[in-house]
Amino acid sequence: MTDMIEKVRTEDAVGKPLIHDITSIRKDGFKGVLFKRNHIIQSDDIDKLKDIGKEHIYVGELEDNQVHEEDAILEIAPKIVDDNIEWGLPSEGKITFKSKVRGLFKVNEEAAFKLNSIEDYTFASISNNTVVDVGDKLIGGRIVPLYTTRDVVEEAKKISEENNPIYRVLKFYKKRVGIIITGSEIYSGRIKDMFEPMIREKLKFYGGEIVDVIFVPDDIDKLLESMRELLSKDIELLILSGGMSVDPDDITPTAIRNISSDIIFKGVPIQPGNMLTVGVLKKTYIVGVPGASIHSSKTSLDLLLPKIFSNSPVNKDEFIKMSVGGLL
To answer: Taking the CA of residue 53 as centre, how many other CA atoms within 13 Å lie in the half-sphere pointing to its CB?
Structure first.
């Protein structure tokens, strides 16, 4: 196959269209597009091009079986993401995907590997299971040469269609939440509770509606009574703080076992927050939060809440896999 694209001296390119974006990097820190694809080169452009080191320019046109870098990316873009992700027009051969909602970013890692294994295509994303907000950048895509072949594009389309969507954002949904704070020292007023303001701030971000907050002493009967009271109020998440260590007065894990129809896990290979305990009763998650959540900016709780509020299944195996990277 003979290319119909040729390299010519910049002076000889006047009157001809650029076949790709020309990027400029200036001393003042600017980096961006100096001339867009299909710009007709003018005589006034010659010095500007030479100022950025462009002594030669590619001109010409692609053959029928060749696909320009921008077109190759645009053909794939709608096939790899869900409706909660948007993208703009390519710039400098690259396309950026952004989140349209607040939620949990998910990647089909096996499919992403297959897509990136195709000749010429590259898609770089943020980490799987990352909490994102509206407008956050999620993925950058481009092909590495100026153009590719139609066969390569069709291969990428096939993988994308078979695995659609490869990249998703699971939107956070509002949920009714009940909170119980245990500890005789807090219940009696001997010390000030620090859990409630922390958990209120976290739940606000995710869209949690706090139905009630109840304080109870280290008495399992009173704790079980309070749990049943909140569960009767049609809550979707019950959070318990205090009494989560191995001390004899720590009764919260026992109460969670007594109330839950199933215990998903008791303890996780994540620090801080090893003692995180999760049970379920019908459609309500019951969560025992370790004390580390009060003092540490990020704990196992911060890996759990996004899954609950995005309606993702919570299972033990996934949290065990988090042990790699689980030292937060």
So the answer is: 4
Assess whether 188 and 295 both reside in one domain.
yes
Radius of gyration, CA atoms only, the chain: 28
More confident residue, 43 or 157: 157
Chain segment 175-209, per-residue pLDDT in tens? 999 999 999 999 999 999 999 999 999 999 999 99
Reference 85, options 176, 195, 166; nearest CA is: 166
- The tally of domains found in the chain comes to 3
Q: Residue 170: name the closest of 239, 235, 108, 234 by CA.
A: 108
| Whether residue 24 is found in the same domain as residue 150 | no
* 2 band by pLDDT with thresholds 50, 70 and 90: very low
Q: Are residues 86 and 209 in the same domain?
A: no
Q: What is the pLDDT of residues 23-46, one digit of tens each?
A: 777 677 667 778 887 788 888 888
pTM of the model: 0.84
Question: Within this chain, do residues 219 and 202 fall inside the same structural domain, yes or no?
Answer: yes
User: In degrees to the nearest 10, what's the CA dihedral of 186, 189, 194, 197?
Assistant: 110
Domain co-membership, 257 together with 220? yes
Q: Which residue range(s) make up the domain with 50?
A: 5-60
- Does residue 327 form part of some domain? no
Q: Would strands 22-25 and 121-125 be described as parallel, antiparallel, or unpaired?
A: unpaired
Residue type, 299: T
